[in-house]
Amino acid sequence: MPMHEFFMGLNQLELINRAPGFFKYQPHNVAAHSWKVTQVAQFLADVEAQNGANINWQSVYEKALNHDYTERFIGDIKTPVKYATANLRAMLADVEDTMTENFIKTEIPTEFQAAYTRRLGEGKDHTIEGQILSIADKVDLMYEAYGELVKFNPEPVYVNIFQSSLEALAEFKHMASVKYIATDILPDIFAADFINQAGLYDLAKSLLPDFAAVAEKRDG
Fold it and tell me: By its UniProt entry, which SUPFAM superfamilies does this protein fall under (predicted)?
């Protein structure tokens, strides 16, 4: 069993568009998303390390690079559909897990199967590396939406995506990397003019105390 099918799958990821079914000025694919998430995760891990965290760098890179590889099996399903019900989400996850397990058994050489079982499993766990992945994934999603909002794309889904990204980041507001995002990145984001900028600005202040503190100084 050579690695041919795994490497071919990398090409397939280039053909899977993100946010399918919506008009966008700048399309994004899953392969590019994985690379961007890895770049963001690398920086966020730097922030956490500088604040005293013990980082397993191999885990950071493996989780980030591989976190969406299994989308080659079922594609990038629209988020509103994917999360429509808990049962549907669970069924999709079960299908993806079954297809991934079969893929590893049939297409990955035996001596590497343990490694790829780890790499292609769910990376967003409770470890600090898993939390960094969760944050990095939402940061890239937020920037994909932001890129459309600053072009005044009228599709309301991008406001919803930006909003949900802020809400997801707020779940990790205790982490040094999210504090950095709140104080050093979001101010630059909100310096631009974009669709529903005021509403999203107020939401960010209500969700992220560190951003609210910076915003109050600037507004004052």
Answer: HD-domain/PDEase-like (SSF109604)
* The length of the chain, given as a count of residues: 220
**How far is the C-alpha of 110 from the C-alpha of 102, rounded, in Å?**
13
Q: Where are the domains of the chain?
A: 4-219
For each successive 10 residues of the chain (220 residues), what is the average pLDDT? 87 89 92 97 98 98 94 65 64 80 93 95 94 98 97 95 96 98 97 96 97 87
> Cβ contacts of residue 137 below 8 Å, gap of 6+?
37, 67, 124
Q: How far apart are CA 58 and CA 118, in angstroms?
A: 12
CATH superfamily label, 4-219: Hypothetical protein af1432 (1.10.3210.10)
CB of 51 closer than 8 Å to CB of 85: no
